[in-house]
Amino acid sequence: MTIFYNAFHSPLGAHSSFTLGCKGKTGGLGLELGGPACENIYIGVANREDNKFLALPFFECEDGLESSRYDHDDKSENDEQQEDNLLQSFNTSDIIRDFSVCTDTWRAQDLKFSIISSSLIAPDPNVASEAEQEFSYCPAVLTEIEIDNSGCNRERKAFFGYQGNGTTDSMNIVRNLPEGYYGVAKGRSTALITDSKYAVSAQGFGAEDLLKEKIVQNYKFGLGGTAMLIFSVPADTIAKFNVSVCFYRAGIVTSGEETSYWYTRFFDSINSVGVFALENFDEYKALAEKGNKSFQAEHFNDAQIFQLTHAARSYYGSTQLLNWDDKPFWVVNEGEYRMMNTFDLTVDQLFFEMKMNPWTVKNELDMFVSRYSYTDKVHFPGEENLCEGGLSFTHDMGRCNHISRLEYSTYELFGLDGCFSHMTHEQLVNWVLCASVYVKQTGDDAWLRDNLDIFEKCLDSMLNRDNPDPTKRNGVMGLDSSRTLDGAEITTYDSLDESLGQARNNVYIAVKSWAAYLALESLLDEKLATVAKKQVDMAAETIVAAVGDNGMIPAIIGEDCESVIIPSIEGLVFPYVMGMKDKVSSTGEYAELIVALKNHFEAVLVKGICLYDDNGWKLSSTADNSWLSKIYLCQFVAREVLNIKTPETGLIADTAHMNWLLKDENLFFAWSDQMTSGVAHGSKYYPRGVTSILWMSEK
Length: 699
Hints:
The chain is α+β, with helices and mostly antiparallel strands. It contains 19 helices and 27 strands. The protein folds into two domains: 16-292, no CATH class; 348-697, Glycosyltransferase, CATH 1.50.10. The chain starts with 15 loop residues before the first strand and ends in a 17-residue tail after the last strand.
């Protein structure tokens, strides 16, 4: 198992990441990016024996000899020239990594380098004190460099620096810091700042130029594209140096509508960010240690720990807390695509947000209602849009810092039946499920009362999308939105074949709709609850009636579809987390449905159908495109809800899925979602994997 994989190291709500872990020029200080910054990162120390320097392998050779920079174990025809390099990489065999949810520590010979991402709890800006918010939303991560120079009778240099990517902003030495602070930066947006008395800020053409420079006045060379903090390590000591890795973007940061970062209420520059973070270093470090423990569970295997840790980091790196007319606007950016609050991600990230920061769920739901809801008509396949539809919600709220126009997403096009079509029914169901889970788990009755009319409109809309004639309803979506014109709606699985791509009559949507009707039955008044209950019963009957002689349920009900899918069971998670465990019990009111779904799942989770040869899960029998976030969710349903606890649902599957992430092709983009035979081909650098938080609540 390699230790050289990229991972996010991110502050809360700053849409930024100090990404690090892959060899070479593959990480860096990224602000509002859909992938790593691809900057040279220099972290190292002088040798004990000579005047050369060793560094962690996160840079490329300045003279083109890349291999000498990040794999000194590999010998080549250029060995003699490599040996002459002033700056070399540690041997791979000398490097150890300790990867946790809040800390990431690298050790190599006399060097120990720790990255601290401490804040997991995002305080509600509507109720938290300014001090709490300043502490939690400070846009910095902290690092600690420890050099063991004991037994060495000479002073040695240590260093931490970077070569910023791009030409818009110059690398520079940070000015106007308080006495005793030193820093280097790229423009005014990213910086390294320290409070060590043993530090000096330096700028030059390259890392080797800086490390061999004898004239300190030349450390301020303004044309240099590389900047470093260089530390003097006294003889025969163990020295520690604290460095804050800072991000900052002032002023208006979005188009479409004008918003700024929430953290600018507390910090006026990147300088103030760096100083504040260092002043609170001990508290952040203690909080990080506490955070590491909070993500541990006795029943976890190593593969689960790795995947949850990796996914949580990716989620936080995608978060953005904005100030919109003096009100907080919580955004989760969609990885490499950078779509803002994609609703079909929100519903999956729901479980993580409810555990960590429930107010963010309410914030997202309120924004969908106030700005990203719409009313449509609906049509049967091939017919005109003459039937009443109702309320629904958009796919997203914008992309790449552009806030989308009222009632429209950036993703959805008209007149399609494949990728980029509308997800009207699924987003309608997603609002009901997110809102219901929020109410059930928080007991926020005031919010429920304020939004009761929305719940009622959602029920009416779902009924119309089943069938406008009440006598012909079956509890399952049967009509498409007028926004598709003469096309058809799709699901979140937009890049798959019809087994998961088509929304109408899809068993995945049918079970989620069944769960939404259950939720509405429990929240609405007696008259409407009776209507919802009838839909619950009919949906269950329709799904059970679709079971074939082989015990499997076709992916598309009633349309001669031969595909079968694992996500048939996905929707069962919602009643379970809402406390309706009796509704998903094999001996309860809907036992026939639950047993049918359990039998279906056991029938499809075999090699040749929905199990790869490496024991990884294949979501659809007819599509080689499997999504880890959905696998994690369905693993929870299989093990905890359906009580199917086998090696195929547990350890061997977990190991296979971890190994997907650790394939050479996947290391660069940290945690990725969409996998084709275990290789990421989409949804890279992605936040959705926090569905794995569900594993923590398993018995």
